[in-house]
Structures are given as structure tokens and as C-alpha cells.
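Worked example

This section walks through a single chain of length 251. The input is the sequence exactly as stored; nothing has been trimmed or padded.
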Amino acid sequence: MQLIQSNLNDKLLQQDFSFSQENEKLQLKKCRQMAEYFVELENGIAILSDLRNNKSYIYSGKIADELRIFQNRNNIEIESIWEDELFNILNADDVLQKHILELQFFQFIKTVAFDKRKDFSVISRLRLLGSTKSLIHKMFYFSDVHHKNVELALCLYHFDFLPSPYYTGMIINTADGAIIQQTEAGNSNFLSAREKEILKMIQSGKRSKEIAELLFISINTVNRHRQNILEKMRVSNTTEACMLATKLKWV
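Given that input, the structure is written out below as C-alpha cells.
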């Protein structure tokens, strides 16, 4: 999970941020008000991450008492964009799927016209450890109007009152009800069909020469696919890639 989170962390924090401090302050103020209103209405938890400054503002309602987290209600600020205190009480596989979906959402939102970006969000069902209860997580990215970077991420959490024993996550258009991408099938597209085919062969113990012969491609092509797999999955070797892909049911 740390590998995917590290990849997402790099994508979010290493953007070419603008320096329009006045616009930044206005957008931050608006998003903080949204977070406060959500917590008041839903008794939920809202976490607003400032990607430029690598910090988060945490707002917690009565749900925090039930979950025994974020007990200091006085406008918590943390020097990180990751709400680890909450992640630690969630199913680790669900958190991993959530991070992958958010990475794909970050890549997707860059292709959307600026004035339409607010219509899209990620929604996930996250199971609580040692409990039959789950949380619904919804996340929005807010972009800089001039440079089109993602400046802020607003995460909203509340109890799921239609529980399921499984993780569910998707990228949605809240304006027209369209599902843009859904897990787990959607997350499996993180690798191409050929990359998954080669990864399966690697998992079964085949070497590059054997794979090339079976697929009627060159060894150089096989090795290029292997390198692409490592880079996409942010792992150091194919053993780690096979383990992670199996965990995610990609192979």
C-alpha cells in the first residue's frame, strides 16, 4: 500500500504550483466553509488537504467520538495530506483500492475542462476493522484557475447505512449521474491487457525468453513491458509486482 500511496503523494505534491496567494486564500476559505457545513449537517468527518503546503485541516463531528479518533475537536491541523489516524481503523485492502482510484482520478481530472471539474468526485465504501460497519468516503479535487493544478483535496466521511461486506469505489459525475470508472474492474485497467498477460507468465515462473516465444514478440518488447509494469506499480522488482497484483485481483 505504501508504494501506491507514495506514487499518489508524489503526483499531488510535486505539481508546478502557482503563486497567486490571494486566489489561494479565497479558495481555501471557501473549502473550509464547505467542510464545516458538512460536519455540522452529517455528524461526519471532513479533511481538507492543502497540497501546495502539504498540510491538512480536520473537522470532526460526532462520528469521531464513535470511532474514537480526532478527539480534539478544536480545528485540528496536521503537517501531512494523509489522515493516518483514520486509515489505521479501516480495512487495509480498502484503503489501498481507494488510493489507486484517487491516483486514477488525479490523472482523469487533468483531462476535464476546468469549469466542469467540480462535477466529478471519487466515492468509496470503506470497511471498519473489527466491525460490521462501513464508512462512505467522497473526495473532490479543487484546481487552480490559472495553472490548472490540483490545489486542494476535500475528503468527506460518514457512516454507510446500506452496508455491504465488500469494498466498492468509483469515479462519478455528480451532475448527470454517470459512473466514469468503477473498481475492482476499473482499477485493473491500471495495467494494460498485455502487461497483465506478461505478469501472469512471470508469476508462473517463465523467463523473458520463454514469454517472447509464447507471445511471438521480441525479448526487448517483453523487457519493455516488464519495466512499464514496475514503473506503473511503483515496485522495485517483479516479485513485488506479482504479490501486489494478486492482492488486487488483477491477475
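What to look for: The two ends are 17 Å apart (CA to CA).
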